[in-house]
Each structure stands twice: as structure tokens, then as C-alpha cells.
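User: My collaborator and I are trying to settle a disagreement about how two of our proteins should look. Neither of us wants to argue from intuition anymore, so we agreed to look at predicted structures for both before our next call. Could you fold the first one, then the second, and keep them clearly separated?

Assistant: That sounds like a sensible way to settle it. I'll keep them separate. The first protein:
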Amino acid sequence: MALGYPVPGRSACVKSIGIGSPGAVAFRKPLIAVNRRLSGLRPATVQVGPHLVHYLEGGKGEPVILLHGIFAEKDHWFEFARKLTGRYRVIIPDLPGHGESSRLPDQGYDYAAQTERMHALLDALDVPRAHLAGSSMGGTIAALYAMRHADRVASVAFVGAPHGILSPSPSRMDKLIDAGRSPLIARDAAEFEQMLSLLFVKRPFMPRPILLAARSEAIRNAESNQRLWREQLGDRHLLHTCVEDLRVGTLLLWGAGDRVFDVSGAEVLRSRLENLQAHVMQGVGHLPMMEAPGKSSQIYARFLASMPRRRSACP
């Protein structure tokens, strides 16, 4: 699970924009466009069943697919992707039901539906085999897809704790859910601030236009988000029941300060996955690709370089 707004990087050209004026929200799109260009990413769309899927793409080489969490979107990854587009074909979709992609009232967005859509998405993008990396919900989708379609997946990376592992020690979010709360749904400004505190140990740089737009969008979508939240709660510990079936090389980055999923869950994955490279990141919360994009992408790049490449078949 993740936060539904893009956070531009720390480049001087972004910081120099006057974001304190009343018209600051007008700078949102230019801020995003600047950071996409800095990461070598360009926007595109593709039809996947009834959904129009928006995505970012850049670079050449082995395909790497980056998958966001619930209520999140593709631009959360651009700074993380900056170290990858020089060597890989990086594709970052807004998963159906999220970001700019379609959210349809007659469609479900549970794990079974989203996993099947991954298959259709890879086909639509002409990706026969890819490295899959995901945050929270996105990591779980990557793992479930790899279990079902191992021939299409070169590796899996959990960039941040995956959703669905039952941690021995309950997290702050676990306790809120058990008390009947929906802590990742913001109905007003105060709940939005509480959500930020849950997600980050140290908040990344957030230009005011992005923050205001994100807050407005979260509050506006609260009722619709509740439907997706209920669908995820139905699979609250799904990955815990089947993670041993994940056979491909796997990377785990889990923030030591994660209040969404307690770091004690990292030991569960260590005990159940043979092909796991695990890193607990000190001073980091639920979203390493936003809170520590340089360090987390560096670890991921090393992991990718360690993965065996599939040899081409003889003609």
C-alpha cells in the first residue's frame, strides 16, 4: 500500500520554481514532466481489456516492470528508475483502478483480477519476460504473477514490505485496522497528515503543488477508494499462505521504521524463501523508493546484475 501522489526529486531546477504563490498548483504538471525527463521516461497508453492503462517507459535492454501500491501511481518511481533506464527497458504502469488508468464501477481490483491483468499488460506491451519489482500491493502482484507464470518472470523484488505477510509483531496499521479504521484513506486534511506519518519515517521533499493536489485528490476519491480497500482486506494475509511457491530470485527491501507492515515480517520471508536477498533499511519507512530512492535503486541494480540472463535458443 502506498500514497497516491507523485513526489518530484531534489534537482535544483525543481526547487527553484516558485511554489508558494496562490497559483502554485498550476506548476504540478510541469514539475512532473521535468522529473520524468530527468529519468529518461516518457508517458504512453495501452488498452488492456476494458481499461486504458497509462504508463511511463524509458531505456533499452531487459524489461523491468515497476508496480506501485494501493492508491499510489507510476510517478512514485521516477527517481528510483533514474539509475535503471541506462541499462534496462523500464516500464512503470498506473495499475488499473489507480492513477490515470481507468477505474470502472463494474470491475474488481482484488489480487486475482489484477494478477490476470498483469498477463494481459505484458502481452499488450510485447514483453515476453521481465524483472518485476513492486511496492506493497505491487510487490504482492509481482509475486503472485511469478508463481502462476514463472516462464514470464526473470526475478521479483519487494521494494518495501509486500502486502499480505503476517508479521509476528503487529504494526501500527494492523492495530488501526483491527480497531475498524481505514488508515490509508483520507477524508480530510487531518487524516491525510496522519497517513503521511504512517508511511514515512522522514518525509521526502514535497513541493507544495504536489502536496495540495495529492491531498485534494485523496479526499475526493475517499469513497471510491473505500471499495478497493475492502477488496484488499479480503486478501489481508494472502501472500503469507503461499509465498513458499515463489521460486525465482527475489530481493527484499524492508524499512526498519515501517509502520504499515512491521519489520518482523522480514524474518518470515527469510525463513520461507530460499532464493532471497534481504536488506533491512535503517531509518526508512514503508516506501523506500521514495524515502531512499538512491540507496534502494542502487541495491536493486546490483541485484539485477547478479541475476542469470536467459540464453537465446539456437536457430
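The second protein, kept apart from the first:
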Amino acid sequence: MKDLSVVWTETVDILEVRFGLAAVQEIIGDLQTITFRKGFFYAAPSVNVFGNWIIPSLPEGAPYRSLQWYIDQSYDRARRSVIGSKLLELIVNEPWQKSNAHYDLFLLGQSLVPTAEYPSGQQVLALSMPGRATVISAVPLRQIQDDRLRLFTIRRVVGHQLGHLIGVPSPSRPETFLEPSGERHCPNVCVMRDSPELEKLVQMALEELRAHVMLCPACRQDLLDMMMDAYFGRN
């Protein structure tokens, strides 16, 4: 299975970063442990945490010199938002994707809209290109006044988008829901449930936290099956 790269802009708060990384560690780290114990040492993806990176050896303004370059190229100053379609295009066409295909998880501290034509005054929480990249904005969650709830909700959102990125839940499970957007969601107590409203999203994050659940057993098995298929397919 492809490796996972995790990056974030300087406008993402350090606690938002830590709780986001906690979701990645809980999902990927757990699966790394399971596959290692089964003797499949390279089945699970490696996680590369690059943060707000820069390549000092490249000249100022050079394409792909830094994470900030991606923001500069996709930011709409009139809307004060990152255009998600532009950012995703930059991510999937970067030279490192071509030389070593991987998953990208991108945390933003800026507002996010899908396209330049998106209704003015509105924003989205996340956008994904399954199998390639996902972009998550922390801005909509900053409406949550309670810091503890906000951070656990960020953790939940990162877990949810990571699932979509890798392909969980599996289309082969008949009880899952296929949304008009093309996204598939889980009916169980699980971060892969759909949560279109902020209040409902917070409620689900708390319910999953109290149940000590990130991925439900069915989604966890889906992910494990996909990793093993990819592992044996390469060999």
C-alpha cells in the first residue's frame, strides 16, 4: 500500500496538528501493529510527517519549493479562501507523486471552497480525491467554543477523511450508504458515519470518544483487507 504524507500550513494551531496526527496514529499505527504481528512487515503504509516544509536549496518563487507555494498558487484573495480544486490539482501533479505515488493528507488553517464558482460566503470542511489526496480546513471547526470539543472533532474529521482517502468503507459491504456525492458512509458507531451538520458532527465525535471507537470493526477489517490485497498484489 502507498505511503501517507501528512502536511499542514503554519496557520494550523499546534494542538489541532497534534489531535489530527493522533487520528492518523490510531488508525495507521494500529494496523501497522496488526500486520507486523502477522509477519507482513511492509503491508501497512508508512506515515511521513513533513509538516510545513520548505526546500531551501530551491530559489525563491520556484514551483514546489515549499508548502506555502501550494497555498499561494491556489488562494483566492477576493474570497479569502483556498480553491480546493486548484490545490488538489497541484498535489496530485507534484513531482513526488510521479516519482513515488503516495497518499497526501493536507491540513489547512485557511478557509476552503471547492471551486471559484462556489456560493460566496460559504466554505467547506474538507475535500477528497480518493486514492490520491485529501484537504481539511480547520476554520469551520473554530466555531466550536469549547476547545476540548473542537480538538476531538478535528481528530474525528481527520480520521473520517483518511478513511475516504484510502477507500473505507468497502463498496462490497451492503449495509453502507452511497451518497449522491459518490462518498460511501458507514451506519455503525464509527468515524465513517456521515455528519453534514456541525452540531451533529460534534455529537458523533463525543459518542465515538465515549465508545473508544475510531474505525468500527467492519471498517477496520475493510482497511486491513485492502492493505493485504495491495501487499500480495505487489508480490
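Some points you might bring to the call about the second protein. The CA atoms of residues 79 and 121 lie 8 Å apart. The chain is about 40% helix and 15% strand.
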